[in-house]
Amino acid sequence: MQPVNRQNNSILIFIAAENFSSVEYRIVREMLIKNGYGIFVTSDAKDVCVGDDDSKVRPEVPFYNIRVSNFAGIVVIGGKGIATYFEDPGVLKIIKNFHSANKLVAAICAAPVLLLRSGVLLKGAATCHPAYKQELISAQIDYSDNKAVINGNIITGTDAAASVEFAGALIKKLSIKKI
């Protein structure tokens, strides 16, 4: 297993402009911060992002000005709103750029579909929200019912109920020291 290129302790979190999973976002953010990671949020929202519980988050990093070299990885939060990005060339390119730079690429809920469609998730095990399970299986991905799956530098999680396990997998992977 190749170690994550951990140039720094900053993690970029992508959330949908509307209807991102507030539970996934809060748990992942809090656990990463508690473990010493700097968190920066990005989205294509013009001002604030609105979660599925009407909570609001203001992105700190302009979506079209992301420098992959500034981050150890990207985490894509799920929720109903993430499906609007399944064909978005900008989001797919950013995911691909992180993967090409040997950075951590993680997605939870419906968001693993973005990893598949970006060409980053090509083989091995992965998980996602059960509603999108068939898309992964149809692409010959070894679908797992586990709450979180580590597949090289790719981490996937099932849903909001798996947020703690998903964040734990992120921290585990990021903690691996380079040899």
CATH homologous superfamily assignment: Class I glutamine amidotransferase (GATase) domain
- Tally of distinct domains: 1
Q: What sequence of helices (H) and strands (E) makes up the elements?
A: EEHEEEEEHEHEHEEEH
- Distance between termini? 12 Å
Query: Over all CA atoms, what is the radius of gyration?
Result: 14 Å
Neighbour order of strands in the largest sheet? 6-3-1-7-8-12-11
**Could you say what the CATH topology is called?**
Rossmann fold
Low-confidence stretches: 1-6
**Class inferred from helices and paired strands:** alpha/beta
Portion of residues within helices: 25-40%
**CATH architecture, please?**
3-Layer(aba) Sandwich
- CATH class type: Alpha Beta
Number of helices in the DSSP assignment: 5
Strand content: 15-25%
- What characterizes the major β-sheet? 7 strands, mixed
The count of DSSP E runs of length 2 or more, i.e. the number of strands, is: 12
Q: Overall mean pLDDT score?
A: 93
> How would you describe the shape?
globular
What does this structure look like?
The chain contains five helices and twelve strands. The protein has 179 residues and is α/β, with parallel strands linked by helices. Strand 11 (148-151) and strand 12 form a beta hairpin. Helix content is 28%, strand content 23%. Helix 1 (22-34) packs parallel to helix 5 (163-175). It is globular. The strands form three sheets. It has a seven-stranded mixed sheet with strand order 6-3-1-7-8-12-11. The protein has helices at residues 22-34, 89-100, 112-117, 133-138, 163-175, and strands at 10-14, 18-20, 38-43, 49-51, 56-57, 61-62, 73-76, 104-108, 125-126, 142-143, 148-151, 154-157. It has one domain: Rossmann fold.
